[in-house]
Amino acid sequence: MISLVGRKFTVLMHAPLFIKLWLLPAWVLLGLGRLTVLIIPFRRIVPLLGNFAGTESQLPLLAPDQRNSALLIGQTVRMAGRHAPWRANCFAQAIAASLLLRLYKIPYSIFFGVRPTIAHRHRPIEAHAWTAAGDVAITGGQGFKSFTVVAVFHTIPSPPKA
Known about the structure:
Elements: H1 2-14, H2 17-39, H3 42-49, E1 51-52, H4 64-82, H5 90-103, E2 108-114, E3 127-133, E4 136-139, H6 143-146, E5 148-155
Antiparallel strand pairs: 1-5, 2-3, 2-5, 3-4
């Protein structure tokens, strides 16, 4: 147990400053995201996700600094999810990541998909949510490979004011 804590502490100490600063807030956002998913109906969550785009989405190119921030946001949210005492599932991670991406004015898309399987009354449909910004998979891994997209929400932040 002590060696596990020591290893995790060592990993954190070698992490970029961004992750050190945002790990606790990301962890809190994951908790709020999980609570939101559990108690609020999906139709009420939809406005928080971004603009509905059907099943198509455009992933605009990111500036180099936006891409670096997107990579760090993804690492931070995934790390916080691994250490959450609750189930930090894909939907909660997508919500937390989208809030951080909006804060940094990074355009993103949240994808909802289902795994194409033969319907069976004893086997529930497998669903997944993932977040991408440009060519960066923020949360949810490579959802495009295993899931058929059924809904996309995206945001394109407004340009900075001159």
